[in-house]
Design a protein that fits this description.
It contains 24 helices and 15 strands. The protein is of the alpha+beta class.
Length: 792
Amino acid sequence: MQLFVQIEAAHDTVDELGKLGLIEFKDLNPDMNAFQRNFINDVKRCDEMERRLRFFETEVIKEIRDQNATVEPATIIDELSQQQKDEKKLQIDELETQFDDLEKELQQMNSNQEMLNRNYNELIELKFVLQEDATFFSEVSDLEEDNVESKSLLADKTVINAEGMETGTKAVKLGFVTGVVLRSQWLSFERVLWRSTRGNLFIRRAEIQNPIRDPHTGELVQKDVFIIFYQGERSQAKIKKICESFDAKQYRCPDSAGERKELLQQVNSRLLDLEAVLERTKKHRRGVLYDIGKHLREWQVKVTKEKAIYATMNMFNYDTGRRCLIAEGWCPKTATERIVNSMRQATESSGALVPSILSVIQSKEEPPTYFRTNKFTRAFQGLVDAYGIAHYREVNPAPFAIITFPFLFGVMFGDFGHGIMMLLFSLTLVLNEKKLEKVKLFDMLQTCFNGRYLLLLMSIFGMYAGLIYNECFSIPMEFISSNWKYETANSTVAVQIDVDRAYEFGVDPAWKGASNSLTFYNSLKMKMSILLGVSQMSLGIFMSLLNGIHFRHSLDIWCEFLPQIIFLLSIFGYMSFLIIYKWCQSYQGAVPPFILNVIIAMFLSPTTLTNENTFFSGQLGLQIGLLLLAVVTVPWMLFTKPYILKRRHKAKLNRNGPHVVAADDEEFDFADIMIKQTIHSIEFVLGCISNTASYLRLWALSLAHAELSEVFWEKLFLLTMDWPFSGWGIGTFFGFGAWAGITVGVLLVMESLSAFLHALRLHWVEFMNKFYHGDGHKFQPFSYEQLLKPDD
C-alpha cells in the first residue's frame, strides 16, 4: 500500500495507525547522507526527554528505597500512577518545558542536600572528636600525676651547657592532631605512623559505637576517633601527610577544656538547626518526587509514543511540491477499511483540509508473513516461528502442531496418573491467567504460563496414552474385565478366557507383570512408533504438494513430490502395511514372520521369498514391484528437474535471442542447479531411513518412562512397607514422601522436559523439513501494543 499524508495531519495519522497496529512501514530513506530526515531533531528531543525521565525514575526509586527497602519500587510507582486522576493532557512541547524545570529543581535540591549532609556529617564527626578528646586529655593528666612511661613526653627537659653543668629546665611544647579514621584501616594507619616517626609519638583511639555516614561517600561506616601527640614540625608534617593518604578527616580541637566545652555546645546547636533544615528539605523533595511518581508512567508512555511517531515519519518521503509525506508499507488485505477509517478520524482531529489517501500498489518484493493468533494458538505458532518464519503464503505447520505435538508428547509421556498431575498444574495456570498476567513470575514459571494451553493439551494426551497403555503410576487399571485368568491361586500361567475376544480399549491389564510383558510392550510401542512416523512424514510430503499447487510450481509436483511419496510408501509404507496386516491375523500358536527380516530380505534377495518370511500369496511380486518403484524414483528426483530447467532455458534463448536475455544467462548455472538437486535428493533418500528410525524415540522414551515409574513405585514405596514398625505407618510415611518427591522431580519435570524436546525435534527435523522452508520475515507493524509491551 501507498499512503499520502499532508504535513498538518501527519502526526495524528501516524498516531491513529499506531493504535490500530496493522501497517508495517518501509524505510524509504535508509541513507542519511542521501536524504536529510525531516524529523530528526524531534527524535533527538524525545531522546533527551527519555534521559530526563530515566533520571526522574532513578530519583523516585532511590526515595522509595530510603523510605522502605523491602518494597519493590516499580510496584509503588504503578500504584501511584493508578491513583492519578484524568487531567489535562499536555503536549510534547509543554512536557519538554516541564521536564527541564523539574530536572533543574531536582539537581538543585540534590546539590543543596548533598552539601547539607556533608556539613551535618562533619559536625557529627567533630562532636565525637570533642567528646573523646576530653577523655584523652583527662587520661593524659592522670598519667602525668602517676609518673608513668608517657611522662617522658610531657615532662620538662633538663638543659646541659658546654661545660657539662646543668643550667636549668626548659618546657617541652607538644603538638597534637585529632580526627576520625575508618576502623577497617586503623591497624595499617597505626603501623605506618609508628614506623615513620620511629615511635616518637603518643597515640590513643576510641571506637564510635554507632555507625556514622561518611561525608564524602554518604554510606554508613564504622569509624574511630584518634589523637596523636608529637614533638617537632617534621613529625607534624609526616603525620598530616599520612592522615591524608589514609583519608582520615582531621579536625581542629582547642587546647583548653573550657574552649572544648564551648565549641561542643556550638556544635550541638548547629546540629539541631541542620536537622531541622534537612527535614524540611527532605519533605519538600519527597513531595516533588511524589508528584513525579504519579505522572511518571503516563509521561514515559507519552514520550515513547512520540519518539516512535517521529521515527516512523522519518521513514517517509517528503514531496516539496504538494507539501505531503509519502509512505509505503504492508498491511493485511482485510484491514484496508479499518485503516481508511483511522486515517479519516486523524484528518478530522488535526483539522487538515486535504484528507490522507491510501492506495494499493503492486510490489515485486516478498511480503512479510502474518498469522493471526490468539492466546490458545500463540504458543504453537511460537514453536514454529522458533524454527523459522514461513515465507509469504507458505503452508503453516502450526495448525497441525496443535494436535500432533501434544499427541507425540503423550505417546512418550503416557501415564494416566502423571497426566492428571500435569493437568491440575496447567488448569491452575489457565483458570488464574488474569491474575497471573499482572504478576511478574520467575523465568521457569513464566515460560510455563506462556505455554499454559500447550501444557493443557499435553496433559490430556498424556492421560489418553496412559489409558491406551493401561498405566496409572505404573499400576494397571481394570475398567474392563481382563480376558486372562489364572487357573489356581498360586499359578503363574494365565489362560485366555475367550480366544475370539479382543480387549475393547487399550492393553489388557493382565499383561502388566507377566513374564513376557517387556517383550509385548516393546513390540507394541516399536511398531506403533513406525506407524506414527510414516504417517507424519507422509503428511509432510503432501503439504509440499499443497505448496506446489498454490505457487503453481508444477515442476516441484512432478519431479519432487511424486517420486518422494512413491519412494516413502514403497518401502516404509509397505512396512506399515505389514505391521497392520500382522496385527489383524490370528496365528493360533504358529510363529509369525518377522517384519524386519522380511524388509531386509526384500533388498538383499529380492527375487526369492522363503516360507518363514511369507505373509500372503503374491507377496513376492508385490515386493519386486515396490522395489523397482523405489529404485526408479532416485534418478527421477536427481535428474528430471535440472534437465527440464535446462531445456526451458534453451527454449527461452531460442525464442528471444541471446542478447535480450544476457542477464538471465549469467544467473542460470546448470552445474549449481545440479549440485543442489543432488544434495536435496540424497538428503531425502537417506533422511527417509534416518527419520523413520528417529521416530523410535517414541518407543524408547515411553518404555523408559514406564520402567522408571515401576521402579520408583516398587523400590521406594512398596519396599518401605516391610520396614520395622511398618504397622505404625513410619515406613509408609517415609516411602510415600520419597516416592512423591522423586516422581515430581524426575518423571513430571525432567521426563516431561525430555519428551517435550524430543517432540519438538520430531516436528522440526522429521516433519517440517519435508515442506517448510522457513526463510520469510515476520510481519512487524507499527503498533503501540507491541511498543509498550514489557520485556520478558
